[in-house]
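Complex record, two chains
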Amino acid sequence: MTVSRRAVGLLWSSLLAATTASVGLGAAAHPAAQAAGAQRPPASPPPAPAAAPRALTPKAAAPIDLTGYWVSVVTEDWRWRMVTPARNDFASLPMTREAEAVGNAWDPAKDEAAGEQCKSYGAPAVMHVPGRLHITWQDESTLKVETDAGTQVRVFHFGAWAAPAGEPTWQGDSVAEWETPEPPANAPPPRPAGPAKFGNLKVVTTHLRPGYIRKNGAPYSANAVLTEYWDLNVEENGERWLVVTSIVHDPQYLRMDWITSPNFKAEPNGAKWDPSPCSSFW
Amino acid sequence: MKHSTLSTAALLFMTTLVAALVPTPAFAQLDLAGTWANRLHEDWTDRMPGPDVVDYLGLPLNDQGRARGLSYSAAQLSMPERQCMYYQPFYLNMGPQSFKMWSESEPVTGRLVAWKISGAVDRGGRTIWMDGRPHPSDNALHTFGGFSTGVWQGNTLTVRTTHMKAGYVRRNGVPSSPNTVLTEHFIRHGDVMTVISVVEDPAYLSEHYVLSRNWQLDAVTPVSPYPRQCDPEVEVPGIGSAGTVPHYLPGQNPFTTEVGDLYHLPLDAVLGGPETLYPEYRKKLKDSYSLPGTCSRYCCGWAGNNLPSGLKCTIWTM
C-alpha cells in the first residue's frame, strides 16, 4: 500500500479538523463536560453545593405502573388451568419421583376437610389460576397484589424489610426490587431524581406453606423458592400486557427449575372483579 | 513502507474517531447472544407430540379461522407446496426447539446491524434488522420467514415481522393469513429468556393471540446456526388427484368431538374463541364439568405411556 506524502498530510489535516469538531460536539452534548471545559475562573464565588437529591421511594421510583386491574388471558396450558385436570396428568412438569408419588395420592376431599382448600392458590401457583389481579400501593414501599380467584393477597416488600417470624403461609414472604437498565460505561452521569424510563419488577418469595403447583396435586415443598420477573409491554393498539416470568426452585419435588410465564391484560376498572373462595375441587 | 505505516495509523485513528462519533445508546443493551435451551414447561403436548387434530383450546379464533381449521386435513402435507407452511417466525413459540442467537455488526463502526436467530428443524434462520431500515412495500414478496426489524425498549428487544406467507398458528392446521403481523418481545433476566409473541391477524383471529415461552442459557445443548431448511419432497406419489387439496367439507371433520370426549370439555371450548380465554368462561364450566378420571396419555411427557409406573414422570418431561 503506497500513499503519497501529500495525501497523508491532507488526511491528517482533515482528522485534526474532525477531532476539533468532535470535541465541540461532545461538549455540546454533555453539560458536565461543558462546565469542565470552561477555561476562565468564575467571576463570583461558586454557589454552595446543591443538597444531595433525596432518594426516591420505591413507589416514586417505579419505572412501570403495575397498579390497576389485570385479567388472566388463558392462551397457554388451557386444559390444565381452566379446568381441574385428570388425576396424575402432570405433563409439562419436571417432577421428581417423590413428587409423582405425592401427586398420585391427591385427595381433594381430604384437603377440603382439613381446611387446606387453598393448597393450589399459593404463590407458586396462584398466578396461573384464571382470575383478576388488583394491584395497589399499600404504602411507599409495599406493593399489594390481590386475586379474586381464591381471594389471596400477595404483599411485596421493597428495601430492607425483615420478614416476621412465624408459620409459613400460602403467599410466603416476598422481597421486591425494581430492575432498571444499566447505562453504558461511557454514558454521561445520570440525572438526579425521577424514575427510570424502563425496567421491571423482581420478586423473590420464600417461607411458603407447602401446596400444589397444579390443581391435581403436583406438589411444591416448604423449601420452594419462587423468583418472578414482572414485565409490562404496551402493544401498538394500546393494550397493556403484563407477563410474569416465574421460576420455581424446589429440589425436593422438581428435577429442574419450573419456568412459566402467565399473561395478563390491563382492564380499565374493577367492574369484572368477582371474588370466589378457594376450592380443592375447582 | 513509511507511507504505509502512516496511512495505517491514520486509518486506525479515523476508525476510532468514527466509533466515538456514533451516538451512545441511552442504555447498555443486553447481550442476547448464546444458545438458549427450550423449557417446555407449558403446553408440552402441543409443542412435542403435537396437538390433537381438532384442539383449538386457548385460541381467539373468529368464525373464519375456525371454519378454515376444521377444513384442514393433515394429508395436505403430502403436497410439496404445503410442506413448509408451518415454519414461520412464530414457530419459535409453537415448536419444541432450542435456538442460537448472535449479532452482526458493521465492521468499521461496530454498530449493531442485525440479530440472527438460528433455524430449527425446518424453520429457516431469521434476521432481525436493527439498522432502522423500513419494512418493504405492501406489494413486496412475502416469504415464510417474513421481514423483521427490531428496536430496544430498555432491556427489551421488540421485533416486528410482516410479509409472511399464509401459514398456521398451531400445528394442526389453524390458519394464519399473509397479512399477519407478529410482534415479539425478547426479554432476558439472568440466564432466562422470555419470548412473548403477539399475533395480529384480523382475518382469522378476533383479538391478539399472545404466547410467552421460556428458554435458559445453555452452553451444552448443540444448536447449529444454519440447519437444513424446509425442503419439500413428494413422499406419497399419486395420493389424490392432481390439483386436489385434501380437506373436509363443512360439518364433515370426523375429529371434531375427539378432544371433548377425552377430556370432558364442551365443544365450544374445544373450538376456541375469545370468550373461552377469560375467567368468566371458567365459571361457566364449573357446574357442567366432571373430572375425566385418571390421565390416559401424555400424562408425564413423550414416553409417559410406555414406561413402568414410577418412572414415567421422570423422563422426557422437560
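Note: Chain B touches chain A through 84 residues (CB under 8 Å).
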